[in-house]
């Protein structure tokens, strides 16, 4: 079934390119534009710097010191705090990328990489402010409150997952590649740069592909509410734009936007699967986590919108 669905999607995209070449090229260009102006400047520098930090040993020196404070707030080992912090500050999918890098050099286990990827894969504040809060009409929720909902939900669900995960505190991982302690070489810098650009190329391909798929859906004869849901759960940026242009009630727009952000879209799932491909597992856990996160976020958004606007 999975292979048939992928084959059908590819055939549909090829047919779209043949019979609607201008629309096909425009959709691909929009995806690449988003990558160049939003994803690349935000994620590439931090991806390169993070890879260099991890391989020089500077990573250990910093987070071994601050983990004694942070672990009282959130029960994680020292190497796991940076993916959480970077994922929340700089945006999706940097959290899962860092988890994959840490797993590759043996600093964290496979289970830790999967669970922390679930928690840390969120959209950054800049994206939420510019593409969501300032796009949706009505100002039903203050910007800071909407961001708090989006960030507290994965932390809350992640805390439950950690608590009930068997052998979580005691699980260790063997060192695969010993870190070069505080030694910065040209080889490490070159590897960090190549690793960062390889990741960006992968993300660009996924963004372009799902932009084309979203454009195909916009030309289908379906209602605005169905169109908004289909595109939003496929690729969030186009979904938010179509949602804002629709005639749906303002309350429904905010709740649907919260659902899109908390789930991350099929594009997000594919990008995460690409980042975690070395683990060869964990995608089912990630999907369940995002669905649970979506339910909690929708509930919190609906309750707060009602309390602040309709009491």
**Total strands:** 0
Beta content comes to under 5%
Mean pLDDT: 79
Structural class by secondary-structure content: mainly alpha
Oligomer: single chain
Computed Rg: 20 Å
User: What is the helix tally?
Assistant: 14
- Separation, N- and C-terminal Cα atoms: 48 Å
- Basic shape: globular
The profile of the biggest β sheet is:
none
Poorly predicted parts: 177-182
The share of residues in helices is over 70%
Considering the chains and any ligands shown, give keywords for the structure.
311 residues, globular, mainly alpha
Structure write-up:
The chain is mostly helical and 311 residues long. The protein is built from 14 helices and no strands. It has helices at residues 2-19, 21-56, 58-70, 81-90, 94-104, 110-120, 125-133, 143-163, 186-218, 224-234, 236-245, 250-263, 265-275, 283-309. Helix 4 (81-90) packs parallel to helix 6. The longest helix is centred in the N-terminal third of the chain and has 36 residues, at 21-56.
Sum this structure up briefly:
By secondary structure, the protein is an all-alpha fold. It has helices at 2-19, 21-56, 58-70, 81-90, 94-104, 110-120, 125-133, 143-163, 186-218, 224-234, 236-245, 250-263, 265-275, 283-309. The chain contains 14 helices and no strands.
């Amino acid at each position: 079934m999975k292979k048939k669905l992928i084959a059908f999607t590819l055939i549909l995209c090829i047919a779209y390119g043949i019979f609607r070449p201008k629309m096909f090229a425009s959709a691909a260009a929009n995806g690449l534009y988003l990558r160049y102006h939003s994803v690349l400047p935000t994620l590439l520098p931090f991806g390169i710097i993070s890879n260099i930090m991890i391989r020089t040993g500077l990573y250990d020196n910093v987070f071994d010191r601050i983990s004694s404070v942070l672990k009282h707030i959130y029960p994680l080992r020292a190497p796991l705090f940076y993916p959480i912090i970077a994922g929340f500050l700089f945006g999706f999918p940097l959290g899962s990328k860092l988890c994959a890098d840490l797993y590759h050099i043996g600093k964290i286990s496979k289970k830790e990489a999967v669970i922390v990827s679930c928690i840390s894969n969120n959209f950054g504040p800049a994206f939420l402010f510019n593409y969501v809060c300032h796009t949706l009409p009505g100002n039903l929720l203050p910007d800071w409150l909407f961001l708090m909902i989006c960030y507290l939900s994965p932390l809350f669900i992640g805390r439950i997952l950690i608590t009930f995960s068997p052998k979580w505190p005691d699980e260790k991982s063997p060192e695969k590649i010993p870190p070069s302690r505080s030694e910065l070489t040209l080889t490490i810098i070159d590897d960090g740069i190549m690793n960062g650009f390889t990741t960006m190329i992968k993300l660009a391909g996924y963004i372009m592909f799902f932009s084309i798929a979203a454009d195909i859906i916009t030309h289908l004869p379906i209602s605005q509410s169905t169109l908004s849901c289909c595109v939003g759960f496929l690729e969030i940026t186009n979904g938010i734009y179509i949602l804002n242009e629709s005639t749906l009630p303002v309350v429904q727009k905010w709740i649907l936007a919260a659902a899109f952000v908390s789930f991350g879209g099929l594009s997000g799932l594919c990008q995460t699967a690409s980042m975690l491909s070395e683990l060869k597992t964990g995608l089912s856990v990630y999907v369940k986590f995002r669905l649970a996160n979506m339910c909690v976020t929708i509930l919190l958004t609906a309750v707060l919108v009602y309390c602040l606007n309709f009491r």
